[in-house]
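Changelog excerpt

This revision adds worked examples to the README so contributors can see how folded entries look when concatenated. The first example is reproduced verbatim below.
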Amino acid sequence: MTSLWWQGACRLVDIAAMAQAQARQQQLTKPAGSLGQLETLAIRLAGLQGRERPSLEQVAIGIFAGDHGVVAEGVSAYPQAVTGQMLGNFVAGGAAISVLARQLDASLEVVDLGTVDTRLTLPGVRHLRLGAGTGNFLRGPAMDEAQLHGALQAGRDCVQRAQSGGAQLFIGGEMGIGNTTAAAAVASVLLACAPGDLSGPGTGLDAAGVRHKAAVIEQALALHALRADEPLRTLACVGGFEIAALAGAYVACAQAGIAVLVDGFICSVAALLAVRLNPGCEAWLLYAHSGAEPGHARVLAALQAEPLLQLGLRLGEGSGAALAVPLLRLACTLHGQMATFAEAAVADRPA
């Protein structure tokens, strides 16, 4: 039987380090609470890193890609060939996430879990080839058991490589034409929500296209008779390779003690899956932004997430999370480098 590694214990947050960071915040030369979320971020990162003054020099970005059989039902404005073409763009440095990774001095790994072009070979891409994309989940399960476990493990393996490189923060990104349909399907089950409330334009569908997407999901959910308390079966039946890899990566980060910055709608659905598979990982997930896909806000609300940015993004690739990294770094820098009242010889507020 395949090991259910994702059920293993997650690292505990260091409460003592959080208390030390909280005490430091109270002594910095500013009114208490005046830096808002930047203060709470620094304190939270202190707990995740186990030290009073956290830092985020080492950022690792892992992009997971895979095609989706449900594209055959006309749910995307783009052809599936784009998935493989974008893999080349990632490693050539031309994609948004590639540009952002360079600016952040972050490592970038691209993992091809299974595209329709099974002969695709690109230098700099890890080609795992779990299949020629997932199955069309309107006709049957998206993944078999071996593919599901392989995708989850791919996420874990990516995190372990990041850990060996000294990563202090992990960002997961995704690429796969049709993956907003898979993400909406998974979220519909886990949130017991109508597909129409979660389906959005994705790559640019018009209103009729969005209605069609929702109808396809609704038919698929009726076919598979999924329940909200079956996250693994839901993932196998209507998910995607990259969504599974992201969920696996998030759990693996929590087990390894690496903070996660979650990107947009698809990554947030993967985070919801990760929390349902292993509730202990929840403390390790930070949320970068509230995106333009209509389902994103509902997923964030279910996770009780407080996103850092609201920029109307819907690109994916991990781009929104990468944009939030400077904010986290500045939170750490302010926390670590501001003077205390005593150091600056500034009068503290009355006791």
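The second example, added in the same revision:
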Amino acid sequence: MDNQTNTRKPWSFYMCSLTFSFERAAYYSSKWLVVAFLTAALVNGGLGIDKGDAAVMQSYFVAATYAAPVVMSFIADRYIGARYLIPVGLLLMAVGYAYQGYVGTKESLWIMISLVGVGTGFFKANLSSLTGTLFKTSGEKDSAFSTQYSFVNIGSFVGTTAVGILYVSLATSEQSGYLQCFKLAGLLCLLGAVWFVIGYKSLGDAGKIPFKAGEEKVVEVKQEKRSLEPYEVRRVLSILLISIFSIIFWLFWYFTYLAVYDYAPKYVNFNIGSFEIPTAWFDSENALLCIALGPILGALWLRLSKRPKGDLSLYKKLGIGLFLLGASFLMLIGAEFQRGIGSPETNKASLMWIIMFGILLSLGEMVFSPLGNAFVSKYSPKHLLSTMMSVWVAATFFATLCYGQVYKAISQLDFMYAYSLITVVLCLLGILLFVFDKKLASLVELREGETLVE
């Protein structure tokens, strides 16, 4: 009975997690909407903008949501309690999405990106930090964040699944369904803000005052001024190396969505009977698979960790992730072979190629995604922990900032050449990480008598 009580989470946790679902439903549906709206022809309610330029704008939208939390989180640290900034962030996002929904121009999209970026800065990191304050032990926090990640994916699944249908059914004679869906994203954020404010009472005193004024957000590490020991130099080198591979992984992970949005509608049969499956459901597939794969992979890693030689190293898991990501691009090549290389759009490939694309992509994400922060926190020299964490965040930001430009450049190349090259490079990098695993693992070998807190 006691164990049951210890594992029960407070209502305030579920209130915060559902708030996350509202916001993620709006964000992931809008990530698809940005490209779909910009590239759709004027007669179909879009702006008819070049797919390369649309890809760049989407990458800036995604990058803004990664950069802003790092920049804006200091406000909750020093000046205002997180519980008050979270609804402010949601309201800013609501205004940004709604503004785009009512104006519907390329210029208004930049205003939306700016408002959503700043809003995310107030919302995302502060909600995660607030969640952490609701639990006392490391084990409780790990369990809570794992559960909250499921709420994130539920929001993503619901948002992208709904918008795939609604952008057609919400279209009117005056406005396109795309614009109506941007308004819907704004409404979701507004509902999230109202829901969170109503739930204030369940939080008790959590988030009322700035974190540095009494609540713990991150473990403070006293800065030491000294030269790095040789073993610390090796560990910093290892973190930098993993960060470079992380850039490659996330750059092409985001790139895959643009590839599907561009290729699939023209060359893949998305019809089941008279129903045409929206490309937004590719995002839905990823969210659903992440929900399903999380517990399965968690159990697998736990089982492997109990072996005499322990779990797979981060390098091997990153290698598997890169190999799976490369194999996912192979599905587009397979689709092109099936329909006939260079054939007209009337020759369609099977939808199964896109389904397999999503499965391999999601497997690669779930193998690699959860590992980076833990690796940095374990092996970074303690007096450089904040710096190394910043390097890790910067790597993801750089990937999100650049994937649109990379897609724009690659889309000018021959399809089979470009995607074959991407497949070979990613798979080769994955294989190299396996081959050199022992040498790379030696960079973070424990010294005699040293132990690390998992």
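Reviewer comment on example two: The first strand starts at residue 271 and ends at 272. The CA atoms of residues 109 and 389 lie 31 Å apart.
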